[in-house]
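Field log, afternoon session.

UNIT: design team B
ACTIVITY: writing a sequence onto a fixed backbone
BACKBONE:
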């Protein structure tokens, strides 16, 4: 949830740190800071608020150095204050930290007894003091770091500089991503490759338990037992364009409009193969997916709603039982595991701690087979999974997940058809039909984007509301949930979603003339039922905003507004009906003047409990 960048070079690294922090800001944005080695002194600047404020302060104070570290913070331990912002310093040691140290209270007691004083409420400050403590005991900065991490429980990515060692930076990783960027006579560290792409594309992902030393001349990596180890050097193909706004006002807007391309890229392998080979999910996927008897999906937030949609597909099309559970609930539940149920984790970032822990828990319960659907190559969750399907949405910067969701749906649909084939539910003709439907999807999505002006008009009405209800049934109930989440997340309007049939069991009491009710109402087998539910709303004075499709046979009337998507998209209809609710949330937030890409209190990837 926080971001780390560090650099050692022969040039001034402050611009590299600031640029890196701006690129990481979407991950956490309540405070930021940098620390540099200036002569034989550590200098530090920290500010609450956005990186731009800290940048201004660094410029005013004339920061320039060839060795430095930086951090963007999303508060966990301790409020949003300058003293809680990173870097934290102890007697000439400065460090930045992502993650959570679980035994920080015991370590704090121990350090207090040793005479250390604390200036923050963070769990991080204990690490700075511990490193200083071990430095005092003899040994260098790397040894002190290696001794320190052995005393920590929890998750961390760390970058450390020390007054006594101007020629190097040391880093460590456990449970949080950290990579090293390799330059010519300069080297870098970052929690996310986007932070250092300006400087290098040659990267080395550190493994769990690794520590490393970066000098200008090179990098040495050590495994958890402190033995030297080699890690593979890769070339990052993340495009800089995906990190730039271009002509758009917000990343969310850009990412909504990128969906036709993101979907086309995600389904490209199936289109190229002319069908749905199991190999879409890895070389060994055929044997694994044929052997399973059911599916258990684990995810959080929007990714969970992708899973809820997939349940309808997997049960109806592949004929396999499928359960979907919020990862943070599953991981603490005494679940009855069926080892022959495939665990499917869905995570845009591949870093979400609850999903990662749920995956570990599922394995501990005896689940033999795991599959990850993820948008970030080399992230923790796919690395811990047996089978992987990478969505090809490209970098998603807006905190509100948009293109990641629809590409997750595309991947899950492909998984459904693969399972259906392997379990004898789909013959060649049906497979060809599904492929054809998938082939049309990017074009249909493009058509839905053309509805934007009509949705802008609705958003202006929503902007003055305090509450909203979203209704859907069957396959489209998860899309109602996604619409409500998007609206509350970025516009701060309280929104709830219900299966339309559930309305009369309680939520109908909320409906009056002030309550806008969004209905996802495509022309499927439940349409007549949805129409009855809409009557229940109208009869109580509620105003209906209906997303239908051309053949749904709706007409607008007093208190009933209708926008039609171009055509009914069969089983892929949930994908098409996602775009209008994304656009409604986006334009409502715009009209209310919220910070669309960085909504309050949130962060892009949630690496804490
Ligand atoms: O990276 P993940 O897909 O695992 O993230 C899960 C949720 O934190 C995420 O989908 C969140 O709900 C989004 N901000 C919603 O737009």
């Amino acid at each position: 949830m926080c971001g780390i960048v560090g650099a050692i070079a022969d040039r001034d690294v402050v611009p590299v740190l600031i640029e890196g922090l701006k690129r990481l800001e979407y991950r956490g944005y309540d405070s930021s800071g940098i620390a540099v080695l200036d002569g034989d002194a550590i200098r530090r600047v920290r500010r609450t608020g956005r990186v731009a404020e800290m940048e201004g302060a660094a410029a005013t104070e004339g920061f320039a150095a060839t060795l430095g570290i930086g951090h963007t913070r999303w508060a966990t331990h301790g409020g949003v204050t300058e003293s809680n912002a990173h870097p934290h310093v102890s007697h000439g040691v400065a460090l930045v930290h992502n993650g959570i140290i679980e035994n920080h209270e015991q370590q704090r007691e121990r350090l207090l007894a040793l005479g250390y004083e604390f200036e923050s409420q963070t769990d991080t400050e204990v690490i700075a003091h511990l490193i200083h403590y071990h430095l005092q005991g003899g040994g260098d900065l790397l040894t002190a770091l290696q001794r320190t991490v052995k005393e920590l429980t929890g998750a961390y990515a760390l970058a450390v500089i020390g007054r006594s060692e101007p020629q190097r930076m040391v880093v460590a990783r456990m449970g949080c991503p950290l990579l090293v960027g390799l330059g010519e006579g300069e080297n870098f560290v970052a929690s996310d490759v986007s932070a250092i792409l300006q400087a290098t594309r040659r990267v080395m992902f550190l493994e769990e338990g690794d520590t490393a030393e970066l000098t200008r001349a090179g990098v040495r990596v050590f495994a958890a037992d402190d033995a030297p180890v080699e890690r593979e050097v890769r070339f990052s193909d993340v495009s800089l364009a995906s990190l730039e706004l271009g002509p758009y006002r917000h990343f969310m807007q850009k990412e909504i409009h990128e969906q036709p391309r993101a979907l086309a890229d995600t389904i490209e392998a199936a289109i190229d193969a002319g069908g749905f080979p199991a190999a879409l999910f890895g070389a060994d996927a055929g044997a694994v997916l044929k052997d399973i008897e059911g599916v258990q999906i684990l995810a959080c937030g929007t990714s969970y709603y992708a899973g809820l949609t997939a349940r309808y597909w997997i049960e109806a099309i592949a004929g396999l039982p499928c359960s979907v559970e919020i990862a943070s609930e599953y991981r603490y539940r005494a679940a009855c595991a069926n080892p022959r149920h495939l665990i499917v984790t869905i995570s845009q970032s591949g870093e979400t701690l609850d999903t990662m822990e749920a995956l570990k828990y599922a394995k501990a319960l005896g689940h033999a087979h795991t599959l990850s659907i993820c948008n970030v190559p080399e992230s923790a969750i796919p690395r811990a999974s047996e089978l992987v399907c990478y969505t090809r949405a490209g970098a998603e910067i807006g905190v509100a997940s948009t293109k990641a969701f629809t590409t997750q749906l595309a991947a899950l649909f492909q998984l459904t058809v693969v399972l259906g084939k392997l379990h004898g539910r789909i013959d060649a003709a049906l497979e060809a039909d599904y492929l054809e439907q998938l082939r049309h999807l990017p074009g249909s999505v493009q058509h839905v984007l053309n509805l934007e002006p009509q949705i802008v008009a609705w958003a202006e009405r929503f902007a003055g509301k305090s509450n909203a209800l979203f209704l859907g049934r069957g396959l489209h109930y998860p899309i109602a949930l996604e619409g409500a989440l998007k609206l509350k997340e970025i516009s701060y309007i309280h929104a709830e979603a219900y299966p339309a049939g559930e309305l009369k069991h309680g939520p109908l009491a909320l409906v009056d003339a002030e309550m806008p009710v969004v209905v996802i109402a495509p022309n499927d087998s439940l349409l007549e039922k949805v129409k009855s539910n809409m009557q229940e709303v109208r009869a109580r004075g509620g105003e209906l905003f209906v997303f239908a499709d051309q053949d749904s046979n709706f007409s607008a009337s007093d208190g009933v507004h209708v926008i039609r998507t171009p055509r009914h998209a069969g089983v892929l209809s949930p994908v098409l009906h996602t775009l209008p609710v994304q656009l409604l949330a986006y334009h409502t937030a715009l009209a209310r003047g919220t910070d669309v890409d960085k909504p309050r209190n949130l962060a892009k990837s949630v690496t804490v409990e």
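LOG NOTE: The longest strand covers residues 31-38.
NEXT ACTIVITY: expression trials, pending approval
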